[in-house]
Design brief:
This protein is an alpha/beta fold. It contains 13 helices and 15 strands.
């Protein structure tokens, strides 16, 4: 389903007659970014269906944060002060946002209003503490950047067969997620190799030839762009780096690169098979069969990590609503103890630790471009957790 955001606050209603308000932020500025937002929202028809079956009155709201922190703050303040219809109903929960800096900027407003936030994609380590979540309303269905970095470091140290790992990191030091992933990687990599160069992808004077020359002593590239927060400059420069990487060098990339857009823009992607690695929470090869089958029969397009973890955010809310939870404080309390079987994983529960982190995802699987088609597959030897 789709809704046209209003130009002032970026908010539109999906249903105007029911009393449990729920908000789905999206990030739409360009067509390619819209596809990301669309995947984030694919789970909410399922929630609406569950609500109808359980005779739960539920109202859903779609808001456009444009993947811009300042816009997200405006939307968050508008929503937390928004009285809906008779009885002064208020927003009960938020599913979102996409990038960590956007979530981080909006979170203080939600926390002050005691409105639950469940993000499928904001992976900033220590997000509650670093983003002024005094009421501890933030939860996530993804793992953190620390888990992502640890997956890379363990592969390099234990399986890469690179005797003397030398890493050049391409990242955006001015964006929270990219900086955090880099810091986690550096911390965990200590004693296991050398960081020979750190290159700023946000530099307006970025020169690809000079960057590659500066990184020439590295036998591993760590390409950690942001998720197009505010603009796609750093992301596009990361793609430039990937397009030139055809010399067999190992490349580890941030989860923001887990998009068909990336593979479609790289002509030499076959040479990257087994050499360009992403650490992902969920992969179709590890999916619960019923979820994949239902997705393919009901929705158009491929299912990926973003879709699956967004669906889980909806699933855990639906479970709480079916138990009769009808206020944000009660919802927050229930999420602290909830533990249900995930619909998208075969062997994982949906539950959260004391910091709102996903409890059951303690490591990620490695994916790599397929040599014969435009998609990511599990790296040879990887097994589903």
């Amino acid at each position: 389903m789709a809704a046209t955001p209003q130009p002032d606050s970026g908010i539109s209603k999906a249903n105007r007659s029911t009393p449990l308000p729920l908000r789905f932020p999206s990030a739409t500025r360009r067509a390619r970014t819209f596809r990301l937002a669309n995947k984030c929202c694919l789970g909410w028809p399922k929630l609406k269906k569950k609500a109808v079956e359980a005779e739960i009155n539920l109202e859903m709201v779609i808001a456009n944060d444009r993947n811009v922190p300042a816009q997200a703050e405006v939307v968050a303040k508008a929503l937390t002060n928004w009285q809906i219809g008779e009885g002064e109903r208020r927003i009960l929960a938020v599913v979102g946002h996409y990038t960590s800096p956007v979530t981080c900027t909006a979170l203080p407003s939600y926390s002050a209003a005691d409105v639950v936030v469940i993000s499928p994609t904001s992976t900033l380590t220590n997000l509650r503490q670093d983003c002024q979540d005094s009421q501890q309303v933030f939860f996530r269905t993804s793992s953190s950047s620390e888990v992502e970095a640890d997956t890379f470091v363990r592969y390099i140290a234990e399986k890469s067969q690179i005797a003397d790992p030398k890493v050049a990191i391409f990242y955006n030091p001015n964006e929270g997620f990219s900086r955090d992933l880099t810091e986690q990687f550096e911390r965990l990599f200590q004693g296991k190799g050398t960081i020979v160069q750190k290159i700023d992808l946000s530099d307006q004077n970025f020169n690809l030839d000079q960057a590659l020359s500066d990184a020439s002593s590295a036998n591993i590239f760590a390409v950690f762009p942001d998720g197009k927060t505010e603009n796609r400059g750093s992301f596009d420069r990361a793609l430039e780096v990937l397009k030139t990487a055809d010399d067999g060098r190992l490349i580890v990339g941030s989860n923001t690169l887990y998009q068909n857009e990336v593979l479609g823009s790289i002509k030499n992607r076959r040479s990257l098979a087994g050499k360009f690695l992403l650490a992902v929470d969920w992969h179709p090869q590890c999916s619960a069969e019923a979820f994949t089958t239902a997705y393919q029969s009901e929705w158009i397009g491929g299912v990926n990590r973003l879709t699956a973890l967004s669906y889980e955010a909806v699933q855990v809310l639906a479970a709480a609503f079916q138990e009769g939870v009808s206020s944000s404080p009660a919802l927050k309390s229930r999420l602290r103890t909830i533990s249900i079987q995930s619909d998208v994983f075969t062997r994982k529960q949906l539950s959260f630790d004391a910091d709102g982190n996903r409890r059951d995802i303690t490591n990620r699987v490695l994916a790599t471009p397929a040599s014969d088609m435009n998609r990511f597959v599990l790296l040879d030897g990887e097994t589903c957790p």
